[in-house]
Amino acid sequence: MSALLEIRGLEVVFDGFRAIDGIDLTVDQGELRFLIGPNGAGKTTLIDVITGLTRPAAGSVRFGGTELVGHKEHKIVRLGIGRTFQTSVVFEELSVVENLDLAASFRRPLAALLRQRRGVSDTVRAALETIGLTDLAERPAGVLSHGQRQWLEIGMLIAQGPKLLLLDEPVAGMSKDERERTGELLTEIAKDHTVIVIEHDMEFLRRYASQVTVLHEGTVLVEGDVAAVQADPRVQEVYLGRSREDAA
Amino acid sequence: MESLFNQLPIGLSIAAVLLLIALGLTFTFGQMGVINMAHGEFIMAGAYTAYMLQDLTGTQAVAVALPVAFVVAGAMGWLLERLAIRHFYGRPLDTLLLTWGVSLVLQQAARDIFGAPNVQVVAPSWLSGGVEMFGSNLPYARLFIMALAIICVIAIWAYMNRSRQGRRMRAVMQNRELAGCSGVDTERVDQLTFFIGSGLAGVAGVALTLIGPVGPNLGTYYIVDAFLVVVAGGLGQLRGAVIAAVALGLLNSYAEFWTDASLAKVIVFAAIIAFLQFRPQGLFVLRSRALT
Amino acid sequence: MSEKLRGYGLFALVALLLLVVAPLVLPPFRLDELAKYLCFAIVALGIGLAWGQGGMLTLGQGVFFGLGGYAMGMYLKLHDAGPGGLPDFMEWSGVETLPAFWKPFANPVVALAAVVLVPVAVALLLGTLVFRQRVRGAYFAILSQALAAAFVILLVGQQGLTGGTNGLTNFYDIFGQDPEAESTQRSMYFVTALVLGVLYLGARQLVKSRFGRLLVAVRDGEDRVRFLGYNPATVKTITFAISAGMAGLAGALFVPVVGIISPSLLGVVPSLELVVAVAIGGRYALAGAILGAIIMNYAKTGFSEEFAGGWLYLQGALFILVMTLAPKGAIGVYHQARDALARRRRPPAAEDDAPVPQKQEVPA
Q1: Measured between beta carbons, which residues in chain B are less than 8 angstroms from residue A15?
Q2: DSSP single-letter state for residue C17
């Protein structure tokens, strides 16, 4: 296995506050990695740095050998990194298919974009089936429920054909059934993609995670498989009280 | 070299006018994000208030006109906020167009009430004359406007930073929901903010009567420059507006001196575009993590 | 399918009205007036594209209209020029040699190309500088308005080069035709109507293309679009340039149609008036933009002929009402009414297939 993402000595400072304080992280090709940690641990900030939304004060993020720091957001997507957001953002005026089609089309040259879409491409159809929204394909995304929106976002991510997927709290605000469905979706995607998931939900973590990295106050606290991480006293200390609550 | 200093008082006095007309916008646009195109007409209302007071009393009492104009323009702004703008929060571009409609109506109303030709407000006698400065004559009226601008800035600063109301206003601006949850009556804060912002337009209007005639198009003439000051200064930042007004005022006067009045406008516009290449959000920015 | 057919039917009907009925029914004077409104409608179409579809509230379309108009006007002036090769107004203001930037416009091909290329170039430059830095929304609106203000002041100030407040007027020869002749007016009307029709079809095609979908996506979530691998600045700049090109073309048509191009036609107020017209017609539909421009200008002429001051009240009041009650404009109201009718006709069971949109708060 080779390293796909290598983060070294990363530091992020917001107006004097050190949101990330020296993180090293390596994610291998084909891995499904969970990032957990209490609020303010720097999880989302880390993803923001990888995807170009936030500039680090120091350190490097290498993706398949390419330095990402300094690239604009859309350039990083073009290198093969896709992400979702905590609050799902889909284009409500566009139909489900149009949302997916846009996600799948960024590699087309500009001149080709000027042509009208004819039918549904194989990539889009596959994504539709994976996320189970085939029946709603022609509906505007604005009518989707919260869970369906999250799936549409994941579908758009798949349609992008990225090498690395970053999911920021994909099951937040979902019902029990929706969580289960998302978990299955995640397992399926992880078969042929490298995925990093930020998640708060402990039960979800136990069911679907294998490799876990625990962040705390901008540093990596522990790294390992789920059982080992859960048993680690440092993790219990950080999560003291909270973890039992979350697990309940 | 002498001309270099010659332009300084002229530039500063342009800056003072720019600052006065833009100060109100730092409230309505800066704090609340409302683009009020009728702000220019509130300036006009302030100017006509001074004119009417002069007609009524027969004297040129600037000291009376300033507070009266503040209340008149402020009341107009408050009414506008209550009747229309509050239904448009979160739709800044629609607000812009809506208030432009209001500004059209106000202009025509002024034309019907006061007549289309310009009217004159006679400056009080203690403001006639001037002082020699760097070889150019600086009228007392201009000096008065500079002093007025400085006093307004200090008063606003004190209000925002030292008073409870001012702190509430800033709280609402930074996080409306949180401020609301913390027991701040955000709707009242909005009303007050709009009243003060519009009232300041009235003050600026009185000041403008000291240096020129008053007409229905007075507001149109100044509104674009006023917004440019706020854009360059950074949203909601008093010090930004001050620095931007001074910079634009000086740039304007020097550009005018070296080229001519019409090219100066283009130069100022180009300078602002160039400046935005380095500071796309203006001089001073409030940071936020939200993906908007 | 029926939707599509209805669209084509409407288009054919409007084309019939404009190309056959109007020239037959309207007296020459009114036809000329309509030609003028169609010029404004072309600008409005561009605004509909930039603002309605792309979310860029451009308050400075008068600048591009003016650039196109002046390019055309400069050619016509040079064509009419006396033995000295100087346009009349330059002789009056004591200019002795033709300024360098005027010279290329003696060539009709250059001038006609400039009609589109100059506005497009200016829009590309401004768009690149502004959108790349993520200056948007209200900031962009203000900057575009400031551009219009500066442009007009420049035109007025440089009397000797631009004709000042009077602008460029008194044209005696329009591509070999007498501008006053009825036949010239008539053919100018047809040219304008055809240009509008072609541009409308082109714009419609653009809106339906992937680029058009992307444009809507940029309007509704510019930052999200970045994470789909597109650069929103490129999308916006291209669209802005297209709308500028349309305005330039409209300005060039305006000159032979009306016989003048002057600063008072392109300042802050005329630019805003067209945006208002688009809003009233319906900003989210290209047809709404065109409709709005034609109706507003008819209303303006009608009212100004009757009582001058009343128009401003009416325009202001109408506008406040539309923004408050029907922000989607006339077309929006029409769609609402149509949907309401369709719902009444359909059996109620057919409505159940719509999933109820659920809004859940997501913990941040």
Answers
A1: 287
A2: I
Q: Which residue is listed with tokens 């004077």?
A: C29
- Residue B109's domain spans which residues? 2-278
Total count of domains within chain B: 1
Placement of tokens 């407000």 in the chain: B121
For residue A45, the distance in angstroms to the closest alpha carbon of chain C comes to 13
What ipTM, to 2 d.p.?
A: 0.89
Amino acid identity, residue A51?
Answer: T
* In a domain? residue B268: yes
Q: What is the reported pLDDT for C349?
A: 46
B265 falls within a domain: yes
Quick: pLDDT tens for B131-155. Answer: 877 777 788 888 899 999 999 999 9
CA distances from A161 to A157, A217, C292 (A): 7, 33, 43
Tokens read off for B237: 């930042």
Q: Are A98 and A145 in contact (CB under 8 A)?
A: no
Integer angstrom CA distances of residue B248 from B139, B233, B244, B265: 21, 10, 6, 10
Residue B287 lies in a domain: no
Q: Is C83 exposed, middle or buried (0-12, 13-18, 19+ CB in 10 A)?
A: exposed
* Binding-site residues on chain C for chain A (CB distance < 8 A): 205-206, 208-211, 213-214, 216-217, 220-221, 224, 226-231, 234, 354-364
HSE, side-chain direction, 13 A CA sphere, residue C344: 5
- Using the Cβ of B136 and the Cβ atoms of chain C, whether some distance falls under 8 Å is answered with no
Check CB contact under 8 Å for C138 and B101. no
Structure tokens at B180: 């609301």
pLDDT on residue C347: 55
What one-character DSSP code corresponds to residue B125?
G
Structure tokens at C340: 């309401």
Determine the Cα–Cα distance for residues C290 and B12; give it in Å rounded to an integer.
Answer: 46
Q: Which helix (H) or strand (E) holds A142?
A: none
What digits encode the pLDDT tens for the residues C143-187?
Answer: 999 999 999 999 999 888 999 999 999 898 888 888 888 889 999
| Record: contact B35-C141, CB cut-off 8 A | yes
Nearest to C362 among A86, A114, A142 (CB): A86
- The alpha carbon of C282 is separated from its chain's Cα centroid by a whole number of angstroms, namely 14
Whole-number Å distance between alpha carbons of B152 and B209: 17
In contact, C286 and C49? CB cutoff 8 Å: yes
Taking alpha carbons only, the member of B285, B59, B231, B79 closest to residue C137 is B231
**Residue found under tokens 């209302």:** B45
CATH number at residue B258: 1.10.3470
The mean pLDDT value for B243-255 works out to 92
Q: What is the CA radius of gyration of chain B?
A: 19
Q: Mind telling me how many Å the CA of A14 is from chain B's nearest CA?
A: 9
Residue C234: is it exposed, middle or buried by C-beta count within 10 angstroms (0-12/13-18/19+)?
middle
Tokens 């090219």 appear where? B263
Amino acid at B171: A
- Cα torsion B80, B83, B86, B91 to 10°: value is -80
Residue (of B197, B195, B119, B107) closest to B152 by Cα position: B197
The answer to whether residue B221 is domain-embedded is yes
Q: What are phi and psi of B265, to 5 degrees?
A: -60, -45
Q: How many CA atoms lie within 13 A of A64 on its CB side?
A: 10
Q: How far apart are the first and last CA of chain B?
A: 49
CB atoms within 10 A of CB B24: 32
Q: Which domains does chain A have, with CATH numbers?
A: 3-247 (3.40.50.300)
Q: Inform me whether the C-beta atom of residue B83 falls under 8 Å from chain C C-beta atoms.
A: no
Q: Do C213 and A72 make contact, defined as CB atoms within 8 angstroms?
A: no
Task: Give A-chain residues touching C239 at CB under 8 angstroms.
Answer: none
Q: pLDDT per residue over C187-246, tens digit each?
A: 999 999 999 999 999 999 999 999 999 999 999 989 899 999 999 999 999 999 999 999
